[in-house]
Amino acid sequence: MTVRLRITLLIVLTFLALCAIGGYALYQSSRSAQQVKAVTEGVVPSTIQSVEMMGQLKDVHIATMAMVSAPDEESAKTTYEALSSRKSELKQALASQMRQADSDAQRGLIKEAEMSLENYFQAIDDTAKFKLAGQQEAAEATMAATVDQYLREQGQMIEAVQVEKRRGKDQAIASLNANLTQTTTTLSAITVLAVLAMGGIGLLLYRQIVRPIGEMERKMTEIATSQDFSHRVPVARMDEIGRSLTAFNLMVEKIQESTELVRRKTADIQVMLHTIPQGILTLQAGGVVHPEYSDHLASIVETREIAGRSVGDVLLNHTDLGADALAQATTAIDACIGEDEMNFEFNAHLLPGEVSARFAGGESKVLDLTWSPIASADGSIERLMLCVRDVTELRELARAAQAQKQELAMIGEVLAVQQEKFHDFVDSSASFVLHNQRLLDDATADATARAGAVAELFRNMHTIKGNARTYGLLQLADVAHAAEQRYDALRQELSGWDGAALGAELQAVRASLETYAHINDTKLGRKGPGRRGSVEKYLMVPRERIDELLHAAGSALHDSSDLHATRALLEQVQHALQLLGTHTLHDVLETVVASLPDLAQELGKEAPRVVITDGGVALRAQVTDVLRNTFMHLLRNALDHGIEAAQERAAHGKPSQGRIEIALRQAAGQITLRLSDDGRGLNLDRIRAKAIASGLVPEDCALAPAETAQLIFAPGFSTASEVTAISGRGVGMDAVKAFIESVGGSIGLELLPGGASAGHAPFQTVIHLPAQYGVARRAPAERAEKEAQ
Fold first, then answer.
1. Is 727 within 8 Å of 751 (Cβ atoms)?
2. Signed CA dihedral, 223, 229, 231, 237: sign only
């Protein structure tokens, strides 16, 4: 039988025993209550009523005597009438006594009393008749003879009833006392039995439940005190208690396994804190550092006084964080600890991630800070964990790697440019930088010269940037673009002149240019202008041309009699010498044209088709750099502002690929270059509005279309809706004009007839150069021969 079944059976038996005791006690109580009720509501009141009847009889007798002795008939009559009601009351009292009688003896006595009462009142009636008839003596005789006799008889009867009533009362009380004594004895016996049964049940419960549980509790206390989880509670039986003890032993075993796991993890954490090359610490309320932290943290912050101090004193106050950033970090830490985990998400951006720090040793360190919340089960943040890494070497390696990557990119950019062209670019850019330095020196010393210097500074830097982008030297282009931004700001507000800042930016351009030159000369071994050399000292002549001249000279030496042939030979030699150091227009613009596809991709347009017609004219080297710089601006502006995107061109019925034409011609003592494109043309209304807004012309000034077109050459003029790194800030055409005028030439715009649409007018850019910069590619004799053919 299991413990559960035993306990259940004992409980049921105990419950039945208690129910039996309670039922018996209830039964005896009910009997006793009935007996008490019989005594208190039956016997005692009945006895009291008997006593009262004796008093009533005496009252009736006194009234009878008063009637007999009444002085007159009227008084006697009144008294007699009152006696009638007394008779009724006595009859009712006897009837009540009859109802309360609990024995035949009592009932027999009450019947005799009723009969005696009738006789008594009959005697009273006889006496009253004599009295009312005036027979006083007869009335007194009747009173003495019969009334008194019946009164004594009635009294005896009532007294007998009282005696009988008292005897019944005594019997009832004796019976009640006997019943109470029996009930008390029975209940005492049953109570003793119940106490013994409960004691047995308690003993059984103690042996079956309390003692095993006590043993388990003792073991638990012993385990908790000694932290030795190898203890087990012996299991003697496999009932519910036994299974509970088995479960307890299993729980202790699991706790032992978990404790061992925690011990191992704690040991691992301690080893990690002692060996990991990171600074790990946790912050308590108020930003105080917890005593547990990694050993490496001491080497980072260069002190071992860490525990119990604020994170500001240990770390943050030694960094380059400003006062505002420090206050925000401290506030964010206080706002997280002790609050909901969501607060960390809201304030994490205020916690510094990477800082530069300097501690007692004086060495500057770059520290990487990683913050993590440690939350409790209810989701509130108990502490913040901070991991500190010294990434100084990593950042230095990253900078070195970045510098190396940058150098490799620059090497690739330099290799993409021919040696001669790169040398020309470096020489040209160096001269612009030198010129800008002189302008800065003069303008810094003389404030009145600044307004004029800014425009020239701007043009020169814009040209450096444009050429750098043309040759694909992007890093130099970015540095030049930054300097160009500074110059643009000065054009808007000259009071912002800062000679030191301007000099620093120009020095950055010079340094970048020198870096490219150093890579070309040292890293790539391409020092110098290459095979061609300087045009001032060396000229490049095709070998086949030399062979032709040698062959013609040999023929003339063998046959000197032919003066015509000798003259023709001299003309050929003269023409060959004139061609030395000249370049075709295609060669001059080759690099600029080659940069247009990349520029078009950057602008989201298709690369234009460029058609160059040189008119049989070669250009001298003295003017090639000027033309290269000039067309760098013109072609880039044409692609940026003139030629539309493919979708817009298709909407106007144009092919998606734009077309740019460059034509060279030498006639009438000058060289003429014409540039045109099939783009949208000039927006004359916009040019005029911009010129008025810039103060170039009065608002009421009437300008012809051709005059309006020439306004684009004004310094700083631009109709671009937004500034770009491609078209600049309204300096292109101003720089173009300056370049052309520097070699004695001129530039202007010619509007083409017809073709205007949506306020845009087609045009050509026309450049005139002195004839000395051009040489016909064919000798006069060759031209005459060709013309004759």
1. no
2. positive
**CA nearest to 113, candidates 142, 156, 75, 84:** 156
H helices of 211-322, in order, are 211-226, 240-275, 295-301, 311-314
* Of residues 27 and 114, more confidently modeled: 114
Q: Which residue has the tokens 């050993």?
A: 295
pLDDT of 147 > 60? The answer is yes
Tokens representing residue 375 in the block: 């939350």
CA 113, 118, 121 angle in degrees (round to 5)? 120
Query: Of 136-140, 427-431, 497-501, where does mean pLDDT reach its minimum?
Result: 136-140
* Residue 746 confidence class, pLDDT cut points 50, 70, 90: very high
Summarised one tens digit per residue, pLDDT across range 428-448 is 889 889 988 988 888 888 877
How far apart (Å, rounded) are the C-alpha atoms in residues 618 and 583? 5
**Distance between CA atoms of 23 and 499, rounded to whole angstroms?**
118
Angle at 396 between CA 393 and CA 400, to 5 degrees: 135
Residue linked to tokens 């009878």: 64
Residue type at 461 in one-letter notation: M
Find all residues with CB under 8 Å of 331, minimum gap 6, and list them. Answer: 347, 350
Q: Note the pTM of the prediction, 2 decimals.
A: 0.47
Is the pLDDT score of 785 beyond 60? no
Query: Region 306-315: what's the mean pLDDT?
Result: 90
- How many other CB atoms are found less than 10 A from the CB of residue 544? 8
Half-sphere exposure of residue 668: CA atoms within 13 angstroms, side-chain side: 4
Domains and CATH numbers, the chain: 3-216 (1.20.120.1730), 276-390 (3.30.450.20), 399-523 (1.20.120.160), 546-574 (no CATH), 581-780 (3.30.565.10)
Q: Give the DSSP letter of residue 446.
A: -
Q: CA 325, 328, 330, 336: dihedral to nearest 10 degrees?
A: -140
DSSP string, 9-26: HHHHHHHHHHHHHHHHHH
451-472 CB burial, b ≥16 within 10 A, e <16: eebbbbbbbbbbbbbbbbbbbb
Number of helices (H), then strands (E), in the chain: 27, 15
Q: Is 284 helix (H, G, I), strand (E, B) or coil?
A: strand
d(C-alpha 515, C-alpha 509), whole Å: 10
Q: Distance between CA atoms of 417 and 428, rounded to whole angstroms?
A: 15
User: Is the per-residue pLDDT at 529 higher than 70?
Assistant: no
Which pLDDT does position 758 carry in this prediction?
62
> Other C-beta atoms within 10 Å of 671: how many?
21
Contact 67, 76 (CB under 8 A): yes
Spatial distance between the Cα atoms of 573 and 60, rounded to a whole number of angstroms: 194
Task: Look up residue 205 and give its two tokens.
Answer: 């419960």
* Rounded alpha-carbon distances, angstroms, from residue 86 to 49, 74, 158: 15, 19, 16
> How is the beta sheet containing 617-620 ordered, strand by strand?
582-584, 617-620, 774-776
- 576 phi/psi in degrees, rounded to 5: -65, -40
Q: What is the pLDDT of residue 659?
A: 93
List the beta bridge partners of residue 412.
Answer: none
Q: Which residue has the tokens 């690369």?
A: 607
Cα dihedral 547, 548, 554, 560, rounded to 10, equals -160
DSSP string, 523-564: IS---SS-SS--TTT-----HHHHHHHHHHHHHHHH-TT-HH
Give the residue among 351, 383, 354 at the shortest CA–CA distance from 282: 383
pLDDT grade for 60, boundaries at 50, 70 and 90 = confident
Pairing status of strand 659-667 against strand 609-613: parallel
At 534, the pLDDT band (50, 70, 90 cuts) reads very low
pLDDT digits (tens, 9 = 90+) for 212-234: 777 777 777 877 777 777 777 77
